[in-house]
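Dear support,

Our group has been running a series of protein-ligand predictions, and this particular one with zinc ion is the one our PI (initials K.S.) wants archived with full inputs and outputs. We had some confusion internally about which version of the output was final, so please treat the block below as the authoritative record. The input we submitted was:
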Amino acid sequence: MSVKHKMIRMMFGLMGLPTCEEVEQFAYDFLEGQLDPYTMKAVERHLKACKNCQRFITAYRKTAAFGKTFKKPSLDLEFKQRLFEFLIHQRVS
Amino acid sequence: MEGYPKSQDVSPVAASNTSENDLISGLREKADWAYRELISRWSDKLYRLSLRFLKRQEEAEEIVQEVLLKVVEKIDTFKGGSSLYTWLYRITINESLMRLRPDKGKVLVSWEEGLPQYENGIHLQEFSDWAKLPDEKFAEKEFQQFVQESIGLLPDDLKTAYLLRDVEQLPEEEVCKVLELTKPAMKNRVHRARLFLRKRIEAQYVR
Ligand SMILES: [Zn+2]
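Confirmed final output from the archive:
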């Protein structure tokens, strides 16, 4: 175990801040604004002090956001008409 | 030929709340207007969802046809307790996943490879700076293809949660209902899918 990691861990502990691992576990709710105000503040303070988590959250946010950039194709009208006729045809009265 | 107005891109619940009961009664009576309404209200949404799983247009079209046929045939067994959309989404997901099975010769990648490594709660690795990745990159065809392929590598449970939440943008409550998950379980799946995708994109595009 590296001394550096122990030091950082101790520093976050003394400041009452979550660890990097906890920041990751809070990431979903952090993005959605679903954390309680106290935890929200603590995560923000961790981020101010930790460049690596800043990068992680930036990447995580972009990853979460690009899903909505995917194209939204639709069926063409001919297909829908054929589908309608198909369903009518299958109908047993 | 009757026109099919473009379905609106709104929450499926909002889209169907107006007269879902009427639609269900109409389907039970096997009325033409109900079939037409079913198609105009749902076919695009189901097509898109299926296309995310299967990628090929013809296959997704077949799924839509199968799902809607199943719905009109089984409408009498539909219990009023849940919403029509939950039922439609569930059938679409199941049919799509079943269709995926046969060509499962692909190499399965463990989603765990997306998990960050820690020592004592502190990151072990340095992350790359995504600020260097311009937003336009996300719109590029090649990039989107890479992401689609990566989504395809996810295990079914993570893939489904991710597609409903991040791609189709369903509200959390609706994802939970469709997948019959608690909120924490749903969030956990979406989170793990994002971790996996983040890792793959970073390895490929951000250095
Ligand atoms: Zn950190």
